[in-house]
Predict the 3D structure of the following.
Amino acid sequence: MTGEFELIARVTEGLEVNSDVVLSVGDDSAVVSLQGDTVVCTDILVENVHFKRQWSPAHAVGRKAVAVNVSDLEAMGCRPSSVVVALAFPKDLDPQWVVDFEAGVRDECVAAGVSLIGGDMSSSEIIVACVTAIGDTMGQQPVTRSGARVGDVVAVRGNLGLSGAGLVVLQRGFGSPKSAVAEHLTPSIQYGEGRAAAAAGATAMIDVSDGLLADLGHIAEQSGVRIDVHTASLPVDDAVARVAAATGKPAVGFVLAGGEDHALAATFPADADLPEGWLRIGSVLPGAGVTVDGAEFDGSRGWDHFG
Amino acid sequence: MTGEFELIARVTEGLEVNSDVVLSVGDDSAVVSLQGDTVVCTDILVENVHFKRQWSPAHAVGRKAVAVNVSDLEAMGCRPSSVVVALAFPKDLDPQWVVDFEAGVRDECVAAGVSLIGGDMSSSEIIVACVTAIGDTMGQQPVTRSGARVGDVVAVRGNLGLSGAGLVVLQRGFGSPKSAVAEHLTPSIQYGEGRAAAAAGATAMIDVSDGLLADLGHIAEQSGVRIDVHTASLPVDDAVARVAAATGKPAVGFVLAGGEDHALAATFPADADLPEGWLRIGSVLPGAGVTVDGAEFDGSRGWDHFG
């Protein structure tokens, strides 16, 4: 690709890295010095699937690409260290888009406390960003999806339904509530909350990206338990309530299945002191699957019966 | 994406991993237990840029996606450990393509001695594969691009020009020489050669992906030296010679600038015993840039003066 090296030089100029980085951009690979085991996750963002150019400024796409990955490290209770970013884009794309994207990457890296240490660039018919995040266990056990035990409580940290509500707003051609739109364009991750949950004794944890019920379903399946969600305990953001009212949909539907929340859901022993900001929303029971207020939830019926 | 979970289950069924893998696919992140520092690189392969569906079987694309990444770890003299693979593809793509791609990924992982530990899937208008490879230093210093010293010898390991010749063959609608086409579709990496070079005292090393001269230029620039290539020492594969003859181009042009070779080029102290298979092809001198047989090379003139 013409200008690749110049563009890489431009977007990595003055790049600062944390003390755990041994070798940053500019070689065949990057090198980081980690404590304990190495934790790795990758997420690919595709134009017109995960974002639209007319909705998302390049800076927001860059931030989101980092945020959704680091959120997956948080969900292991691990310390995020660094990211590598591969970006493919059309040859006729304004180079400023790439510069703004990389500025978003760098800004979110600062917010997350991680270093941008490498990447790749290619031409492509559409924009595709693939970020891989690296973290470490610092010698602690990672918190998996399989450790929930009967008697545990279920708790969440972060916004539920706000991103899904923002998507509905954008799809209808509107721009407000602004908080919902902003949350959809760049999820606001509570960095450090995964480690706080691990320190508080979380037995299982997951990044809520497919919707709360779907992701609690992964914990239930992998832990061999049933999870019951108490709808009365669920937080309903004002903006979610407004979008729900405007669209005639039940607000709890956004909260239970909005998608792309990038909140954390975890299980804790019943006597655990939950870290600040975590909210109890359910319980771990014998059995299988996820129930809502004790009743089997039939996803095919949609959310109307919650209205 | 409909069927994503079923497809992931299908392509990861019976997945075997090496003993350094603590947690493989199925959680928010994977965990590996490494020795020394963690080494990371990422490469993105885009349909119609890095491969064409009508030329490359899915299995070959999967193999290539792993190979080009692990080659970047080899170029650091490091031990490859594992890969994560993100794949985006059209909703109407035959699922068998994805299954074959993942089989290629798994086969190349076996060849490279690495474990597939995670990934992501998305829909997309075109096929995009992004692999991130993880390795470790085993407590040794990684071999960077900046360590070449005046008086060192320059050596290469692997095929030069064969992939570029294969691309020309495919572009002209032919299928032979088969060895050139096969090398373009899936580069044959000499796994373990990077570590062997490091053990033999390599002072600088690079994965030859942009063409030998271009990549030696990176070593020259980052090491603050001049590199002179001796064309009489360059290996010219029979298939490269045949393609060169058929197309009226000088064979040495393919060797010096073919691209996508994924050979290794390294510098060694003059008295080093080169590992088997490495070939001396040049010398490290005071100055800057890359020269060919002592003369400045003018890329804009093309390769005709080598004919």
Observations:
- Residues 95-112 of chain A form the longest helix (18 residues).
- The radius of gyration of chain A is 20 Å.
